[in-house]
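Work Package 4 report. The design task specified in the project plan requires that, given a folded chain encoded as C-alpha cells, an amino acid be chosen for each position. We show below one input record used in the internal validation round.
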C-alpha cells in the first residue's frame, strides 16, 4: 500500500511510518491539515491515516473537503476523543474507519488492509491468480505453495496487478504508487520492475501484458483479452 499519514505528533507519525515501512508499504508524512488536504486530493494513495487535531484545517475539514471533491481514497481517522458524537460525525462525513489513541500498531495496519480490501472489492487478504498466491498479511508470495523471493517493490507491483486483475494499470499510476516522490521513480523504472517480475513469475500460470502506450495488465495465461499487444 501507498499510505499518506497526516499527523502532527512527531512520535505518533514516526511510529506509524516505521511500522508500515518495515512491512513493505510506502508512506508519505504530513503534519499539517492544509498540506494533507492538498496531498490527498492530488496524490495516488491507497489509504490515508488522518488525525483530527491538526494545524491549519482540522481532520473534520480535511475529510469533508476530500469527500466533496469525490476523492474516494479510504480514510482512517485517528482521534484522542472517545466521543460517540465525534465518531458518528466522522462516519457521516465519509470516514472508512477510526481509531482512538492510544492504539495498537498491529491493529492499525490490519484496519488499513481491511479498508483497502473493501475499497478494491476484495473480501480476503489472500490474492490468487493461476498458480500464484499472495498473502497480504504475511507479505508472502508462492507458486504452487513454493515461496518465491521478491524485492519490496516487486511485491508491491504484483499486489497492485492482482488487485486490478482484468484492468489495465497506467504507467503513471504505478510510478506514483511504487515510488511516490522518490527521484528514482520513472516509467523506465516501472518497465524494469515489470521485466524482473515477469522472469520470477515463470510457471505461475499468469502473464503481465503490456498495453502499448497505456500500462500493464495481469491475466491468466489461458485468458484472451482483445486488443492486447
Amino acid at each position: 500500500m501507498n499510505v499518506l499519514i497526516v499527523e502532527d505528533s512527531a512520535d505518533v507519525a514516526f511510529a506509524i511510518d516505521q511500522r508500515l515501512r518495515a512491512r513493505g508499504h510506502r508512506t508519505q508524512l504530513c503534519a499539517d491539515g492544509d498540506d494533507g488536504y492538498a496531498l490527498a486530493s492530488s496524490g495516488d494513495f491507497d489509504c490515508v491515516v488522518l488525525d483530527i487535531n491538526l494545524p491549519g484545517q482540522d481532520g473534520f475539514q480535511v475529510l469533508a473537503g476530500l469527500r466533496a471533491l469525490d476523492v474516494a481514497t479510504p480514510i482512517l481517522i485517528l482521534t484522542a476523543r472517545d466521543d460517540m458524537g465525534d465518531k458518528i460525525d466522522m462516519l457521516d462525513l465519509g470516514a472508512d474507519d477510526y481509531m482512538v489513541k492510544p492504539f495498537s500498531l498491529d491493529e492499525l495496519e490490519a484496519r488499513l488492509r481491511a479498508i483497502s480490501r473493501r475499497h478494491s472489492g476484495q473480501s480476503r487478504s489472500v490474492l490468487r491468480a493461476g498458480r500464484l498466491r499472495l498473502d497480504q498479511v504475511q507479505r508472502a508470495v508462492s507458486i504452487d505453495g513454493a515461496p518465491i523471493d521478491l524485492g519490496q517493490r516487486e511485491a508491491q507491483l504484483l499486489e497492485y496487478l492482482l488487485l486490478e486483475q482484468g484492468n489495465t494499470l497506467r504507467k503513471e499510476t504505478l510510478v506514483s504508487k511504487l515510488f511516490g516522490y522518490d527521484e528514482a521513480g520513472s516509467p523506465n523504472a516501472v518497465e524494469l520492475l515489470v521485466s524482473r517480475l515477469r522472469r520470477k513469475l515463470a510457471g505461475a500460470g499468469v502473464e503481465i501484458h503490456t498495453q502499448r502506450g497505456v500500462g500493464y495488465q495481469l491475466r491468466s495465461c489461458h485468458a484472451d483479452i482483445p486488443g492486447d499487444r
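The radius of gyration is 18 Å. Validation will be extended to a larger panel in the next phase.
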